Amino acid sequence: MRILLLGAPGAGKGTVAELLVGRFGIRQISTGDMLRSAVTAGAGLGVSAEGYMKRGELVPDALILGIMEKRLQEEDCKKGFILDGFPRTIGQAESLKKMLDKLGMKINAIVNLEVPEDVILRRLTSRRTCSNPKCQAIFNIFTKPSRKEGICDKCGSPTVQRDDETEEAIKQRLKTYEEKTAPLIEYYKHDPAFVTAPSFKPEPAVDAILARVGR
Ligand code: ADP
After folding, report:
1. Strands, sheet with 109-114, edge to edge from the N-terminal-most edge strand
2. How far is the CA of 207 from the centre of ligand 1 (A)?
3. What are 10-44's pLDDT values in tens digits?
4. Nearest one of 144, 139, 143, 142 to 128, comparing CA atoms
5. Which ranges in the chain belong to alpha helices (H)?
6. Cα 41–Cα 34–Cα 195 angle in degrees, nearest 5
7. Pocket of ligand 1 (CB under 6 A)
8. Of residues 36, 88, 123, 128, which has the active-site annotation?
C-alpha cells in the first residue's frame, strides 16, 4: 500500500498518517520529521535546511530529493509507505514519478486533506510537539492535551512549540503552501488514485482513504 498525503500545514497529515500506519502496518515517511531530526543532529543537511524551515519556506528541491531517493530504496519501504509532506512542489512530484517508475512502484491513493483555514490557524497555534527527535509525537493544548502538561505521553520528554509555529512563520507557511503546493491538486486531479478527504476530524478522512483503496 502506497499513499501520498497532500494538504496545507495543520491539515492533519501527521495524525491521519499515524492512523493509517496502525491500519496497514506500513511506514510513515515525513520529510518534516526527517528534516527536524537533521536540524537537531546539526548534520550537513540540517544546517542547510534550518533557516528555510524557521522562516516557513520550503527547503530547496535538490536537498529533499536527495534524501527521498535514498529513503524510498530502504528495505522497510518494500511493504509500502505513507508519504507525509512530500511532494510539495510540482518539481518534486515529477521527480517522485521518475523515482517510483524506476523502482517499479505504483501509488494507491493520492489524498488531498481539506480543512477550512480558520481551523488550520487554530490548530497550528495550539499544537505542541515532543522535543525528542526520535519521537516527535504531536499534541494539542485544546483537543489532544498530553496527560501531564508539557510532557510527552509517549516518551516523557518535554513538549514544545515548534520554531516555525510563531504567528509570522505560520502565515509564511500558509503562503508557501498556496504558491508552491496547492498547484499539486490540479496536477494530480485527474489521476485515478486522487481523492479529496475532508479532514475536520481524522477518522472520516481515514474512512474516505480506505474507501478509495477498496478496504
Ligand atoms: P507542515 O506540513 O505542518 O508545514 P512539516 O513538518 O511537513 O510541517 O514541514 C515543516 C517544514 O519542513 C516545512 O515548512 C519546510 O520548510 C520543510 N519541508 C518539509 N517537507 C518538505 C518538502 N517536501 N519540500 C521542501 N521543504 C519541506
Report:
1. 27-30, 81-84, 2-7, 109-114, 194-198
2. 25
3. 998 999 999 999 999 999 999 999 999 999 898 78
4. 139
5. 13-24, 31-41, 44-55, 61-72, 90-103, 117-125, 167-176, 183-188, 202-212
6. 170
7. 9-10, 13, 31-32, 35, 52-53, 56-59, 64, 85-86, 88, 92, 164, 173
8. 88
